[in-house]
């Protein structure tokens, strides 16, 4: 028999739902969408105490609104009372969102004389058939947190935000997703005004996922910074597994347009004839990501039955792994270090096989104009020489997948 506390406890992931409305007509465009996470609002247990049949309905049209309803509310007993279900939302939604007047909200959307238009400058467009939004960071990005605008002015000015919209036939816009990036200094005496851009958050709304928007949005953002002479490197902060896959696929596709990368030979990499530094600089990629892509490209043309060639390839990959984890590996005994490198290499090779197969399937789907590919196979292992982490999701991830959730 459930305890009294359990009887009044509600799963926040089930109680909270989101609906999206046309900024012009006020009509629902997507409804009943559950959040992926609610612990930033309602604690690690993702539970709300004090209600039965609780519904917290978030409405968004770039003009958010929220209302909460319930069948029963728990009586106050001593110091124990029902949680204020709206209070956690107040920090992340404008004051106007809490009017509770649904009819008034719809009438407001329908009566606006000036239709909503996206802020900022148009960077690119693509055809695809198929404080107003910060709450989405908490509900759909694991470990995500809104940008702290209380920081120093100079720091706030280094944030850059890209919005992705669908332009509708009536010249109105539907919000699809967004991406935030931060410009760090790139220390170089010869060119002191250079920056390193770090992608921090990346989100496509659930109703637009699995339609290729994430890939094209990512490509457009990367191209924007490739065209910027002041940006030296484009990095990603703590990506989720799904976003890491998206990044790998799109980076490989982009690098594959360079004949030197496409036709790279194992012997040239072993002899250091291949211009790694120059090509990495052109691609504005961090060292680890570029070398992983290079290793995947080499693996595609590798004859694993050729023992000499296969050994050379393994040495290249293990050399990179050792360099990146030298402090940890140096603490191990020689035989243990060799075993750990072998184990890590096997994980890396398995993951490269998975990614290359995924890219092959994706290219077939794109050629056939398949709009909704199936979910990607799970990433085989994190490339790490540390002991296995807990299976419980961490809260360090800052980037959410845009396409393959």
UniProtKB/TrEMBL annotation:
Task: List, for all copies, the residue spans of the domain called N-acetyltransferase.
Answer: 158-234
User: What one GO molecular function would you report for this record?
Assistant: histone acetyltransferase activity
Q: Which residues form the Histone acetyl transferase HAT1 N-terminal domain?
A: 8-136
GO BP annotations of the record are: subtelomeric heterochromatin formation
Recall the taxonomic lineage recorded for the source organism: Eukaryota, Fungi, Dikarya, Ascomycota, Pezizomycotina
Region annotated Disordered, chain positions = 365-405
Q: Which Gene Ontology CC terms are recorded?
A: chromosome, telomeric region; nucleus
Per the record, the similarity remark reads:
Belongs to the HAT1 family.
Please write the reaction equations for the catalytic activity of this protein: L-lysyl-[protein] + acetyl-CoA = N(6)-acetyl-L-lysyl-[protein] + CoA + H(+)
The question of whether Cell division is a record keyword is answered with no
Query: What is the name listed in the Swiss-Prot or TrEMBL entry for this protein?
Result: Histone acetyltransferase type B catalytic subunit
